[in-house]
C-alpha cells in the first residue's frame, strides 16, 4: 500500500541519486538544451523529499493537494509536453 512514508522514502532515494548525478545531467543537457536539467531535477526532488519528510499530512490525498501549492491551475508536469499535457492546456516549449 502506498503511504506518505513510502513515498517519502522513494523521493529521498531518488533525490540522493539526482544530487550525485547533478553535474552529469547538466553536461548532458548542455548538449541540446539550456543546461539546467541537473539543477532542476536535484532541486525538485529535494523539495518534494523535504516536504514529505517534514510536515506532510499522513493522508496521501491531502499530501498531494498541499504539495502542489496554492495555484488552482495544475502546474506543468515534470515529464514535459505530452499528449496528456496538451489536453490539460499546458503550453509547449514554443508556447503552442
From TrEMBL:
<feature type="compositionally biased region" description="Low complexity">
    <location>
        <begin position="79"/>
        <end position="96"/>
    </location>
</feature>
<protein>
    <submittedName>
        <fullName>Uncharacterized protein</fullName>
    </submittedName>
</protein>
<dbReference type="InterPro" id="IPR036117">
    <property type="entry name" value="DhaL_dom_sf"/>
</dbReference>
<feature type="region of interest" description="Disordered">
    <location>
        <begin position="57"/>
        <end position="96"/>
    </location>
</feature>
Amino acid at each position: 500500500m502506498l503511504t506518505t512514508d513510502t513515498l517519502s522514502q522513494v523521493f529521498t532515494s531518488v533525490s540522493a541519486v539526482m544530487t550525485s548525478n547533478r553535474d552529469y545531467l547538466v553536461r548532458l543537457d548542455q548538449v541540446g538544451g539550456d543546461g539546467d536539467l541537473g539543477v532542476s531535477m536535484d532541486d525538485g526532488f529535494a523539495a518534494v523529499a523535504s516536504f514529505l519528510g517534514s510536515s506532510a499530512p499522513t493522508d496521501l490525498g491531502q499530501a498531494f493537494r498541499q504539495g502542489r501549492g496554492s495555484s488552482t491551475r495544475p502546474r506543468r508536469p515534470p515529464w514535459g509536453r505530452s499528449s496528456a499535457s496538451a489536453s490539460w492546456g499546458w503550453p509547449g516549449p514554443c508556447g503552442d
